[in-house]
Amino acid sequence: MKRTAYFVLFSVVLVAGCQNQDYARHVLVPDRTVGKLASTLCGSGEYVLKQKRIDSVGRMKLADGAELDVWVVRARKEPVQGTVLLLHAMGESKACYLPLGERLAGRGFDVALIDLRAHGESGGKYCTFGAREAGEVKLVADTLLEGKSVRPPLYAFGPGLGGSVAIQYAALDSRCKGVMALTPYKDFRSAGRRMLFPIAPAMSNEHFKEIVVEAGKMGQFDPDQASAVAAAAKLKCPLLLVHGWFDLAVPMEDSQEILKAAPGPKKLIDITPVLEQILLQATRDQWVADQLDKLAREGLPEK
Prior knowledge:
The chain is α/β, with parallel strands linked by helices.
């Protein structure tokens, strides 16, 4: 009888452990479909290089053996305003932002388009929401500046995941003179909870804590380190946030908390739904390029 009870208990623990791993994997392993499709439509780095849409292709090895795939577009006019590090959203790839990169190059920026770990053509299995990515973006910046592939000062841009990583990166690198983030995640815990809601809407807080611990073990990172709010408090450069009032993926609250934490200069552009949101989507690349150009030339007002 005792043996049966132990077996049942062991089975329950084993099933719970496997379920927690599945939940953690659901959060950490991005769906690469959109990014891969963009890469396919755009073509390989070598192909885009032959078309002269970019100026160089590189792969940079990380401490865990994974490699990051990076494209560089040099400024198409003088004077050079600096370099924009373009970081994509969750599940996307650098290929999604090549048109924006080309537009920025036309404004006098060098541009580095980076596939974050576990995305696009880069290696790595797990996304860590900035805990590891922030330092890896700094490594890319170090390497490109040292090789004179790009020129200072540095600026960082990204939507969603990319925006959160951009803020966390800028907190590490004093050379970064401005960050623009669209609908950034405020931290790993809130983003992970939202991602799990469709498949586990009734998950308790205690159970979610177990998932967070499992995710940290699986991705080999500290989940609490993946926080744009904590990073924003350490910023030494202007922070420009853009968020829609009725964003279905990332609530406005995320940007509001990041803004509150940042010492300034800082600004939140809130986008009203329907007409303004539709117009912004239709002209996104031009609008983003305008904002980054203005940020580089004028900065943000002190408040």
